[in-house]
Amino acid sequence: MMLAESTSREDSLAPRVTIVGGGLAGLAAASVLATREVKVTILEARPYLGGRASSFRDPTNDALLDNCQHVSMGCCTNLADFCERVGIADLLKDEETLYFQDERGRLSTMRSAPLPAPFHLLPSFLRLRHLSLGEKARIARGLHALFRTPTVGSDVSFRDWLMANGQTARTCDRYWGVILVSALNESLDRIDFRYARQVFVEGFAMNPRASVVKVPSVTLHEFYGERLERWLADHGVTVRLNSAVKLLSSNEGTIGDCRLRSGEVVTADHYILAIPGQRVLSLLPVEFAEHEDALARIGQMEYSPITSVHCWFDRPVMDLPHLVVIGRKIQWLFKRTAETSATAATDEGCYLQAVVSASRELVSLGKDAIQAAILEEIVEMFPEARDARLEHCRVVTERTATFSVTPGIDRLRPTQRTAIGNLWLAGDYTDTDWPATMEGAVRSGYLAANALLKSLGRAPQSLAEPLPASWFARKLIKSAALGNGSSS
Question: What does the alpha-carbon distance between residue 311 and residue 333 come to, in Å, rounded to a whole number?
Fold first, then answer.
C-alpha cells in the first residue's frame, strides 16, 4: 500500500506534457520524454498515428494505400535511433541496389563497391548508361567543386551554382535533379545550396552505408501501428486519437490550456506543437503570433506537393522492386506487394506506385490528365503493359507535403524553443540542420524534448552521431557545419 501511494504521489508531481500531433516529430518527442519521468499525452486529430506518413483504405478495391512512398537512407541516424528505441527497426528493408531506366529503356544499377568513401559509388557511376562519358567527367568536376565549397551566399539557388560551375541543362536534368528533386521535393532553381550539398556530402560521400536506401516493408499503417502503440503504452504515454485541437489559449503570456474541437479542455504544464508548419499559427492566440517574430516568420514559408499514382494491372508488368526513372514525368516507380498494400494481391496481378515530387506542373493538369500521362509513360516503359488491363487507378496529391528548402530558408525556420515559456515546437520545418525528411522530423522531436528537459533541469538526450567518415572523405571534402545539430 505504501508503495502504491508513493508511486501515485510521484505520478502526480511529474510534469505533464501535451503533444499536439501524432506524426513522427511528436512521436520522437514522446519517446524521449517518456523515459525521463514526464507524463505525456499525445493528441492526434486522425484515427491513427503517423501524421503525413499514413495509409488510407481505397474504397474501390479495399487496398490499404500509403499516401506516398516514404524512403529513408543510411545517413538518417536519428530516424534509425527512434526505430530501434520503439522496436520497429526491422520494418525498414535495405535496398542495396538502385535501378535506373532512361527514356530509351536502358537499364543501369547503382550499388556500393568495396571501396572507401567517396569512391564506393564510382564504379556504378561510370556504368550509368543515361550519361555520356563527357557528361560524367563534367559531373565529376562539379562534385569536386561541391565538396570543396562548404558555403555560398544564402540566396543562391543550387541550379545557379551548378550553371556557374560548369554544368549544363542536360547534366542538371539527368543527374543532379534526379537525386535532389526526389530527396528534397523541390526543383533545382528553388533549392538552397546548403541543403543540396548536404544530400551529396552526408548521403553519398562520407560513408558507404550512408547511401543505402531503406524502404518500409509494411504499410505505413502497420509501421506506426500496434508495435509502436504498445511501446508508448508500456512507457506510460497516453495516446488520444480522433482528438483534433481547435486552439491553444493564453494565460498571462503562457499557454493556459488546449481546446479540442469537441469542446473538451485539456490542461498540462507544457505543450509541444508537433504539427505541420502551415497549421501552427492557426492554433495559437493571435497576440503570440503578432508579437513573436520567430512564430510570425513561419507564415512566410512555402510548401511543395508530391503526387502518387497507384495503378493495378491484371498481370505482371514490372519485375524490379523499384525504378528511378530518367527523362520522364515519373521519377520513382515502386512495385508494391501484398505486405506493402495490405491487400490480397496475387501473382497474376501487379500494383505499381508512381511518384512525382515537386509536382506543381503535374497537379495543374487535373486528376484525369495526370492518370493518362502516367499510364502513357508506364506503357512506353514496359511492353507488357500494352496488353495488360488496368483494373483500377488512383491519383493522390499531398499539396503541402513538405516545406520548400528555398534559398535563404534558414532565416524563416524557428527553433524548437519559443518565447512563450511553456510552448515548444516540433516538426521538420523547425531548425534541425536537415531538410524536410523523416530524419528532420525525428531530430525536431528530439530537440524539442531536450529543450523542454533542460527547462526542467533534467539531462537531455544526445542526438545520434552521424556515420563515421572515411579517411579519404575527410581529406577530400571541406568541412561544413551540416547535420551536427545540438542538444539544446
Answer: 11
pLDDT in tens, 423-439: 999 999 999 999 999 99
CA distance 157 to 192: 5
Counting Cα atoms < 13 Å in the Cβ hemisphere of 331 gives 26
For residue 321, what are the CA distances in angstroms to 64, 94, 99? Answer: 19, 12, 9
CA atoms of 325 and 381, how far apart (whole Å): 9
DSSP code of residue 417: B
Q: Which set of grid coordinates corresponds to residue 67? A: 499516401
- Residues 115-138, mean pLDDT to the nearest whole number: 98
Give pTM, 2 decimals: 0.93
Other CB atoms within a 10 A radius of the CB of residue 160 amount to 16
Neighbours of 191 (CB within 10 A): 29
Please give the pLDDT value at position 486.
36
Angle CA 302–305–310, to nearest 5: 170
* pLDDT, tens digit (0-9, with 9 covering 90-100), for 320-355: 999 999 999 999 999 987 666 655 444 578 999 999
Count how many residues are written for the chain. Answer: 488
List of residues 6+ apart from 59 with CB closer than 8 A: none
Peptide bond into 118 cis (omega under 30): yes
CA distances for 74 relative to 209, 289, 420, 427, angstroms: 6, 38, 36, 21
Residues 6+ apart with CB under 8 A from 201: 146, 147, 477, 480, 482
Task: Report the distance separating Cα 427 and Cα 278, nearest Å.
Answer: 11
